[in-house]
Design goal:
Layout: E1 9-14, E2 17-23, E3 28-33, E4 43-45, E5 48-54, E6 60-70, E7 73-80, E8 85-90, H1 95-100, E9 104-107, E10 110-116, E11 120-129, H2 130-137
Antiparallel strand pairs: 1-2, 1-6, 2-3, 3-5, 4-5, 6-7, 6-11, 7-8, 8-10, 9-10
Length: 139
């Protein structure tokens, strides 16, 4: 069985198209593409196609993570192995319930567990709007 990998990282939308991205200096964002995006703003490099643009020219700029429920607990999905084991971080408020259901504290406030992906329900993407955050902190 093949499992779709969780989408994580910075995703930028430029002219209605989504690109994986990295944050550059001084309000710039570097867009990445493995295929020719047929856009003159992109330059071909040995690692693919890149374009560095001002953040304020983007339609959206989000930090994306995948969430799911395990045994009724909200979790961050940090990865899915080829064998179908999902790495999870507990996001719920009751750490004693997390411990009772097999989550282990790996750092202060961080509880983790591996579980078969078939035991996860309610998969969803979580988007944190980075343009909104920038607007709030840099008037």
């Amino acid at each position: 069985m093949t499992y779709q990998r969780p989408r994580t990282g910075i995703i930028a939308t430029l002219d209605g198209r989504e690109y994986p991205a990295t944050l550059a200096e001084q309000g710039q964002v570097t867009l990445l593409s493995t295929a020719d995006p047929a856009d003159p703003r992109f330059t071909h490099t040995p690692s693919g196609w890149h374009s560095t643009v001002p953040a304020d020219t983007l339609d959206r700029l989000d930090e994306v993570s995948t969430r799911a429920d395990h045994l009724g607990h909200p979790c961050l999905v940090v990865g899915i192995s080829a064998q179908g084991s999902a790495g999870l971080y507990y996001l719920g408020p009751d750490k004693s319930k997390a411990s009772a259901d097999g989550f282990v504290q790996i750092d202060p406030g961080t509880w983790a567990k591996n579980a078969p992906v078939a035991e996860l329900t309610n998969f969803r993407e979580h988007h944190a709007d980075l343009l909104f955050t920038t607007w709030l902190t840099h008037p």
